[in-house]
Amino acid sequence: MKLANINACEIKVATVYVITCFMCDKELHLAATTIDSNVGDAAAMAAAQGWHSYQTDDESCSIACPSCIKEVQENEAEANA
Questions:
Q1: Nearest CA-CA partner of 18 in 48, 75, 63
Q2: To the nearest 5 percent, what fractions of the chain are helix, strand and coil?
Q3: Residue 37 in this model has a pLDDT that exceeds 70
Q4: Beta-strand (E) ranges in the chain?
Q5: Percent over 90 (pLDDT), the chain
Q6: Where do the structural domains in the chain lie, given as residue ranges?
């Protein structure tokens, strides 16, 4: 078998918004073409998928994934029980 470089015309350039959870470093990738290349639309789409900021009595986080938000909610429920 003979290997060669990929033909450059076969490579596509894409704009992607990357949103990273500050608690676990999980990343959400949103293609700009599906959200009209607007950061506000990216934030709204992330929120629709459960990504939010939050604030509790003792901490705040500007970006958290659904799993980490659930964990914080469970920890708060335990602390208040």
A1: 63
A2: 40, 25, 35
A3: no
A4: 16-20, 27-31, 52-55, 60-64
A5: 73
A6: 16-80
